[in-house]
Write a structure and sequence with these properties.
five-stranded antiparallel beta sheet, five-stranded mixed beta sheet, 432 residues, alpha+beta
Length: 432
């Protein structure tokens, strides 16, 4: 297996060009008849999301079948909650990645499905699975406990009626592991019907995920200036083992940051990521540049992992932390946005995408190309960082830049929640 994977990505794109995906088959015990069956495992990437492990089991003796999806990446730093208002058939077809840690609820019905096995499904698929699960033991319940069976029957009826879309309803997916996902059919624009909240996990949630706080003190290595540190990691694109280099850099008129560069021999990708070498600033920062000249594309940009990107003239506003931390130019960052939307690993590409979405995406990318090439000017480029750790070069420094506006603002409760500040105890913490 190791020889087959040499210089080849662990996680392959699932598309029409990949006609021979590498599937691993292993013998495993069937829990229904206790005979041997076959489990097939495929490592792939969900479009516009991240790596997952798909597994399916089939027993030739008793006919039992089972399938499961598991995240192929580590547990994220924050939990995530998606709340989507379902209004039409397109919303019912939204693709969903639901991990084994995710809870699905429909507030209007006071319905909640506890964490189960991970699946790749749709909103309609989640409703169908709930109806199937509740209907399984109904005949026996009707005979033994008819009162409860009647109430469950009412819930089944209400769930079934949701698919008729007689009135809108809201579905919520809450995943403390941060690895669940709901498709945004409006991408690259913000979805007006979806709210995404990133939150700091509670101690109970960390315990359920198998994450515990070690009592022993950890020694943190100090990175000196001009020192390059090498360490082993996994490729952010294909998850194959690779090498990352890290160095402390001082940005003029700003602060020190840590730049990490990764080069993967398996898939050939080269990436860089930036993290602040200091803590969270007292206030958030919103940086707005009016692009008036093609030379603006060469301005240096430090986008932290907590920063969002916006172009009001294109109705574009990215989610918190999209693309991670970057140290590049405006041109490089806009090109990253385009590549992220148009790559093979995107819901907007491939056989499953809708022509209307592809058309809208193409129009957006054409406008983005005009900005990058300098053909389109007098547009605004916005960096909004609640942590205050992002930067855009002032080419007139130390004088003020007439086209650059920097606003420092007080964070709201939701932004502090994302940054984990609401749970920080600064007084009498020894007693907690």
């Amino acid at each position: 297996m190791a020889e087959q994977r040499e210089n080849k990505p662990f996680f392959e794109d699932l598309n029409a060009d990949n006609d021979e995906p590498e599937v691993t088959e292993i013998e495993s015990v069937c829990f229904q008849c206790m005979d041997d069956g076959i489990t097939r495992i495929f490592l792939t990437r969900i479009p516009f999301f991240r790596e997952v492990i798909l597994s399916s089991f089939h027993c030739e003796h008793c006919g039992a079948k089972n399938s499961q999806l598991q995240p192929g990446v580590a547990i994220q730093e924050k939990g995530v909650s998606f709340s989507v208002e379902i209004k039409d058939e397109q919303d019912l077809n939204r693709q969903i990645v639901q991990t084994e840690y995710a809870t699905v609820s429909i507030p209007s019905l006071e319905f909640e499905a506890p964490p189960c096995k991970g699946v790749l499904t749709t909103v309609e698929g989640i409703i169908n699975a709930a109806v199937t699960g509740l209907s399984m033991d109904q005949p026996a319940r009707m005979e033994q406990i008819p009162e409860i069976a009647s109430k469950i029957g009412d819930v089944i009826l209400k769930l079934t009626l949701l698919k008729t879309l007689q009135e809108p309803f809201t579905i919520v997916i809450d995943d403390p592991s941060g690895n669940s996902f709901i498709e945004n059919p409006c991408a690259p624009k913000t979805d007006p019907n979806m709210k995404i909240r990133h939150y700091t996990r509670s101690d109970e949630q960390n315990s359920a995920l198998g994450l515990t706080m070690e009592e022993e003190e950890k020694t943190e290595a100090k990175i000196e200036k001009d020192e390059v540190v090498n360490f082993n990691t996994n490729c952010p694109e294909c998850n194959s083992p690779c090498n990352t280099r890290m160095k402390m850099v001082e940005i003029p008129h700003f602060k020190e940051v840590i730049i990490m560069a990764t080069n993967c021999e398996a898939c050939g990708i080269r990436t860089n990521e930036v993290k602040s070498a200091s803590g969270i600033e007292p206030k958030g920062c919103r940086i707005t540049l009016k692009i008036t000249d093609p030379t603006d594309m060469t301005r240096d940009v430090l986008k932290s992992e907590t920063c969002s990107i916006g172009i009001p003239e294109l109705d574009f506003d990215s989610d918190f932390g999209t693309l991670g931390g970057k140290f590049t130019t405006i041109e490089g960052l806009l090109q990253n946005v385009k590549d992220h939307l148009t790559g093979s690993n995107s819901f907007m590409q491939g056989d499953s995408s809708q022509s209307s979405r592809r058309s809208g995406l193409q129009i957006f990318c054409n406008e983005l190309d005009k900005i990058i090439s300098g053909e389109k000017t007098n547009v605004h480029f916005v960096l909004d960082d609640p942590a205050g750790n992002s930067y855009l070069q002032n080419v007139y420094a130390p004088d003020d830049d007439p086209e650059l506006e920097i606003v420092h603002y007080e964070r709201n409760y939701e932004q502090n929640e994302v940054l984990g500040l609401n749970d920080i105890k600064t007084e009498n913490y020894e007693q907690s």
